[in-house]
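thread from #wetlab-drylab

HS: before we spend reagent money on co-crystallization trials with S-adenosylmethionine, can we at least see a predicted complex? here's what I'd submit
DV: go for it
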Amino acid sequence: MARKKRIIEDIEVIDIADKGNAIGKAPSGEIVILLGEAVPGDTVDMVYTKKKKGLKHGFVTEFKSKSSHRVEAKCDHFGTCGGCKWQHLDYAQQAMHKENAVKQAIRRIAKDDESKVNPIKTASKIYNYRNKLEYSFSTKRWLTIEEVNSEEQFDQRPGLGFHISGAFDKVLNVDKCHLQDDYSNTVRNTLRDLAIENKWSFYDIRNNHGLLRNIIVRNTTLGQWMITIIFGKNDAPEIEDVMTKMKNSLSEITSWNYIINTKSNSSISDLSAEHYAGTTHIEESLGDITYRISPKSFFQTNSHQAKTLYDTALDMASLDAEDVVYDLYTGTGSIALYMAHKCKKVVGIEVIAEAIEDAKINAETNNITNSTFLVGDVKDLLDPTFAERHGTPDMIMTDPPRAGMHEAVVTTLLTLAPKKIVYISCNPSTQARDILLLKEKYDLEQVTPVDMFPHTSHIESVALLTLRS
Ligand SMILES: C[S@@+](CC[C@H](N)C(=O)[O-])C[C@H]1O[C@@H](n2cnc3c(N)ncnc32)[C@H](O)[C@@H]1O
């Protein structure tokens, strides 16, 4: 009886919400959030389970009619794996909803005109577009519905794949993932098979115990592959055994590395990568620039769209040969180096020391002599005296993490007052928040969304701001 009261019938699904969820409109006009697999164009009944921020959230109990925008999900793990939640929605619709998300942020948060948002630049490759995947080991793989419903007992449950969201100690045992070139599947499945055959222990996160913890697989458009295995135990003979057997099984790997992490947390930023065999790094090329990628260095995870993103930013910057340019949150200097031949001088700032090492090497190997790279927090390094030492900037490129820029950085940008700011962001909300602050002295000219991650709700957006005269 209680359940019946909680049913809402004939909801029209009208939009996409965060995290693969959807927004519905009930016949009464009430707006609700549908958790799970509904897509715009569906008509559904739902049972609501909770109220959040005044909105009822719940699950679909029945599809009354299905949207014409639905497509068959390509992946066998769809629905269980949290990775590509929009696979069942056609790509044009995904793109439209992402563009709308950027428009909404500009209208509601930046308090500006959404017509300044250009059409989204969609991805030409909607599968196998990632150049990096990290798989996790677990002693408790996630059981499928069929396994749960079967009579079988599963005492030993080693698994290698992706973490299940909301169940930190369990992983989905992945057989085939469509996000990276298919050889990534060969690498992962080879390691899992060898581990089971050789009785190498899988990591038990609850007890911080076990040899095999993670494997990071990276590749580049130049056909190079890098493997970094993360071990939970500092046991040299066992590590040697794993690395030798893997190396003997896989002939296409360019660079072999490992990291020992015996800590209870999984962060590897404070650990060093050990080089095992092959080259110490792999190479990627965007435009005229060749980048060196070390096991721990950041590189945009979709190389094809990284070029589209950088070209979009560079077009907006419309640099002059005499311009002094700052590249804030420069990572391995990727955008800075991409811009260097178009300006007089470029100065990159980044908090991770190893990334700056890579940036300097990348400058050298590409014969770029007009770049300077500095390690530190942008908030601390970029004070008003910075310009006296490095030159007054004509254009500032900024590409902060999801949280956006610290307010102090925005204040410094307003003081430095370059003619142009090009703001790249992976979070339209924090980008729009910072744009609102910059509007004290700047006009927002245009914003271009770029899709780097098909089948997910993530969106990158590039904004151009010009100084008011
Ligand atoms: C979104 S990535 C951008 C990387 C680079 N622009 C690229 O396209 O490859 C953000 C970068 O900001 C760095 N970062 C985060 N917080 C920082 C801070 N407070 N000061 C300087 N760098 C920071 C991160 O380490 C990361 O490399």
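DV: Residues 401 and 426 are 7 Å apart (CA to CA).
HS: ok that's useful, forwarding to the group
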